[in-house]
Amino acid sequence: MAFTLALSSPSPLNWTSINCCYWEGITCNQDGWITHLHLPFKGLKGGIHPSLGNLTHLTYINLSHNSLYGSISQDIGFFPFVNRLEILDLSYNLLSSELPFSLPSSSIQVVDFFTNHFHGVIPSSFFHQTRNLTSFNVSNNTFSDIYNATTLEEIALPVNLLYRSISDRIVNLTNLAILNLYYNHFSGLKFIFLHFNYLEVNSLNTLPPSLMNCTNLSELLLGDNNLEGDISALNFSKLSILSKIDLWSYNFNGPFPILFLKYLSFLSLSGNKWTNLTGAMNILMRCESLIVEIPADDGLVDFDGFKNLQILSLSRCELTGQIPFWLSKLKKLEILNLDFNRITVSVPIWLGTLPRLFYINLGSNQISGEFPKELCRLAMLLYEGTSAQVYQNYLELPIFVKIRDDAKALQYNYLYFFPPSIYLYNNSISGNIPTEIGQLRLLHKLGLGFNNFSGSIPDQISNLKNLDTLDLSKNHLTGKIPESLKGLNFLSYLNFSYNDLEGPITTSTQLRSFQSSAFEGSRYQTNAEQLM
């Protein structure tokens, strides 16, 4: 009854029965304890009496759509002894003051304060004991800052006074499905990192045009989501200070509008269906800050830009033609990834002249010709002294690499952890594997499978003491497996299957440790099965 004393007279509630379990809006459990208080749209006016805090078995409170007003004590908070509460709905009232330091229950799941007069900062302690909170709606109040919660699935804070930037702690909300922040003051928004989600921004799975109003945005990282559409409909000219863009593995199409992005330093556009990239390249030549990823064009013979470019990754871009000669001028290039395209002709011999190159992936293209001996002169793969200068480099943004469709993408933050590799798998390369390959003593991964290589396996491969991956499968290699390969102690993946090899497998414990599938399809298969 004390609850009605705080209401303006006359009270609209007819609470006269001796047994409160029969009162309007009250539900009790079998033991007679009040568990539900359901009083929306009752015309209630006045304050919320602290006596509600004595109902310690309450799990549900709904006082929405009334005219309740007044403040809530910072110290007392929302019914501090109601520690079973799961639903708290005070929406559409006139309640004011700042939020208390904490919510009453660690079991609370839904909090709805929509359309009140709450204000100030939402304290970080407000969420400390709310590990089950899934929905937090404080729309149409006047909050000026927010903090992260725990397992939140929905945050609704539109029509507030939020300004500057959102705390980077929001990345802890791994279950977040809905983030509603419209009509705030995020003029200082600088970073959007949403890569590697299954993001659908709206029913059309497109980026909203309103994103272009974030004029202070400097980093937009949305790689590997479910977005699509014609990106030319977005006016990127408003985002003139963008320095980093990651739209990797989308289904975007159309011309990419980058005319005004003069501060661009990171651009990842792999896995899309862009058009008009020739014009884009002419613009990007003037982007002196660009040092990471770019779109490519085969027609820039006289190209003389990107002198600081370290990493070129254009996987799955449906590129055609040969690898352009202007890449030979990129003397600081360290990583070249052009896999899963339609590149033709042969592996250019000038790749072996790039002084800092230590990772090449040209897999799954239509490359023909032979393995150039010049590729065995890569300085970064010859001696420890030369490689040290590159391996210390920290990548300002991570690189994600997926060698196979059924494999998880690996993230690399340091070039030190990026494995020195040559991948030429799934092409039409023929001829012998050059014996000079034994010079690449720092090579970790060699993938030459699914080609037309012939001749014997070079004994010199045994010089590659750091090799952990060796794939020569599905070629036309003949002869025996060199006995010297037993010295490759770090080898963790080996595949010689489907060649024309013969004879017994070396008795090396190292080679015998691999499954028989690594040797199937050749005339030594029976011997292999006996040894395994």
Indicate the topology:
Layout: H1 2-5, E1 26-28, E2 34-38, E3 45-46, E4 60-62, E5 67-70, E6 87-89, E7 94-98, E8 110-112, E9 117-121, E10 135-137, E11 142-145, E12 154-156, E13 178-180, E14 191-193, E15 219-221, E16 228-230, E17 244-246, E18 251-255, E19 266-268, E20 273-275, H2 277-284, E21 311-313, E22 320-321, E23 335-337, E24 342-343, E25 359-361, H3 384-391, E26 394-401, E27 410-414, E28 421-423, E29 430-432, E30 445-447, E31 452-455, E32 469-471, E33 476-479, E34 493-495, E35 500-501, H4 509-512, H5 525-531
Parallel strand pairs: 2-4, 3-5, 4-6, 5-7, 6-8, 7-9, 8-10, 9-11, 10-12, 12-13, 14-15, 15-17, 16-18, 17-19, 18-20, 21-23, 22-24, 23-25, 25-28, 28-30, 29-31, 30-32, 31-33, 32-34, 33-35
Antiparallel strand pairs: 1-2, 26-27
